[in-house]
Structure to design on (347 residues):
């Protein structure tokens, strides 16, 4: 064993788990004084650590935290939302598409209405061009005698 | 020589599985996950907050934040390091918000039902002088750690009280390993000197 004890800086390095010189390491292995210096510091640090909480307290803290989690954010929820969206799309298609489709014009009814108006007031013949177009266009394709 | 229980540096397969299940809403898995690493959070909060501060409340808040933020955990580092980083940030927030100055009480007995950490220091042969010296050494360590600059105190506590390795401390504090070592090399001599001064 060499006679020179470890320096305070070397004691620090040992405590930090870092490398010291070969000679110093050999000295430490056989020097009770240096081992005691190291152990005193290490043990004081360990003793200064706060006591761990009791298992019951730890469990309570965990339970409260776990209960704060959202119910289930997993795949089941995702599929449920997707299925609901799909159902809405299908129902919309079933009910809305027929309602939006243009209905055929009942030309007979329109012509009857025009006849009634003209019978009451001949000046109503000055009708709006779009009305005339509907009536004339519709009747042009009709076979003669249907009005 | 007594040593602080080491906490794993990388995420274990068990942790990865539990994280996956907890993300899917499995509460049992979430509880198991917290149980594995709860001591690290308790020790972090106990040493970064002043005595008398609501350590339990801080631990619970850290747990809640972790479970609600599981989606942000990338899995690149260890889960315990990530969890501790949440606890560290929470403690910083509380200290800042309340303008609290860390402090330590000098008495050390009765914390764990009479079988306290002082027994480690006092045994064997707990003569009154030896016990008194042990008390003084522990009190000096606590006072010295509490008086360290914030970042040195955090690094020292995470290394020696929580038991994280250098890489985990670096990840938890968002610094590199060299910075962690620098803080440790500055903090430890002060703590060692405090212990040496307690000698008769």
């Amino acid at each position: 064993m060499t006679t020179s004890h470890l320096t305070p800086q070397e004691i620090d390095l040992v405590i930090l788990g870092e490398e010291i010189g070969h000679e110093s390491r050999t000295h430490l292995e056989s020097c009770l004084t240096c081992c005691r210096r190291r152990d005193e510091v290490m043990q004081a640090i360990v003793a200064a650590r706060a006591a761990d909480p009791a298992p019951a307290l730890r469990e309570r803290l965990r339970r409260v935290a776990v209960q704060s989690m959202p119910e289930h954010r997993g795949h089941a929820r995702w599929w449920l939302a997707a299925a609901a969206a799909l159902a809405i799309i299908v129902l919309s298609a079933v009910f809305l598409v027929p309602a939006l489709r243009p209905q055929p014009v009942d030309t007979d009814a329109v012509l009857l209405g025009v006849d009634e108006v003209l019978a009451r007031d001949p000046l109503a013949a000055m009708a709006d061009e779009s009305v005339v177009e509907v009536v004339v266009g519709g009747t042009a394709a009709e076979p003669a005698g249907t009005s | 020589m007594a040593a602080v229980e080491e906490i794993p540096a990388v995420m274990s397969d068990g942790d990865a599985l539990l994280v996956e299940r907890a993300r899917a809403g499995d509460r049992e898995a979430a509880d198991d996950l917290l149980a594995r690493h709860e001591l690290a959070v308790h020790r972090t909060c106990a040493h970064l907050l002043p005595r008398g501060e609501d350590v339990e409340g801080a631990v619970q808040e850290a747990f809640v934040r972790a479970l609600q933020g599981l989606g942000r955990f990338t899995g690149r580092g260890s889960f315990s390091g990530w969890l501790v980083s949440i606890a560290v940030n929470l403690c910083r927030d509380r200290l800042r918000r309340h303008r609290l100055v860390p402090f330590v009480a000098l008495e050390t007995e009765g914390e764990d039902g009479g079988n306290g950490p002082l027994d480690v220091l006092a045994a064997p042969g707990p003569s009154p002088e030896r016990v008194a010296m042990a008390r003084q050494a522990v009190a000096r360590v606590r006072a010295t750690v509490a008086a360290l600059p914030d970042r040195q105190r955090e690094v020292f506590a995470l290394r020696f009280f929580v038991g994280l390795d250098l890489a985990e401390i670096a990840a938890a504090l968002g610094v590199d390993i060299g910075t962690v070592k620098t803080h440790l090399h500055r903090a430890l001599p002060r703590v060692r000197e405090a212990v040496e001064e307690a000698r008769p």
Q: What stands out?
A: Chain B touches chain A through 56 residues (CB under 8 Å).
